[in-house]
Amino acid sequence: MPPRWCVCAGSRTVETALRVDVLMDRLEQYRPTSTGMLIQRAVPASRQHLFERQTRLDRATICAPDRELWILHTRGEPMPADADPGRVQALLLDGSWQAVQVMLPHIEGWGRRVRLPATAPSRYWLRDAQIPGRLSTVEALIVLLEGFGEREPAAQLRLQFELHVFAGLLARGKRAEAERFLVDSPVRTALPELAEKLLSSRRLG
Description:
Layout: E1 19-25, H1 35-42, E2 47-51, H2 59-62, E3 68-78, E4 88-94, H3 97-103, E5 112-115, H4 137-147, H5 151-171, H6 175-183, H7 187-190, H8 192-200
Parallel strand pairs: 1-2, 1-4, 3-4, 3-5
Helix pairs in contact: 1-5, 4-5, 5-6
């Protein structure tokens, strides 16, 4: 972010028993809206793997031998109710819907495909034409943590996500939209001074 919309003062790190890996389409690493990059910042123990069509993925370098691999996808089986996050490795696919469909054949058979329970609509206001029922990568991780009962890590990660979106809207000059977003955001109560500071900034040019 430009310094006037820096969110470092609100940065928090998230610790979880779940092992988190992100398989990221190479284009996402250059997008300031990327929530896959946000996961890397907010969850220091997570790992990021870049996906390129011409490069063969090495299962041994991604999959943890002591954990069951879950690949999050809308066409997976329901999330098991009694799973232990300390025994699970979650692989999140980060990219456009089309990019994710390209990734899937490359990791077919690596682990269990799991779909998340139904949730509230996405709060990812930084990208247009959000498809109902689909979440950003970090929102999928938040829902997964909640499903495991890891409510505090989920809440901390949600705060980082909401701050990311709020500051991103302001950086685009969408102040009115940012103010609407803030009404239902935990940023308003958890980081009131930072929220006010960001709102008082002005877009240059």
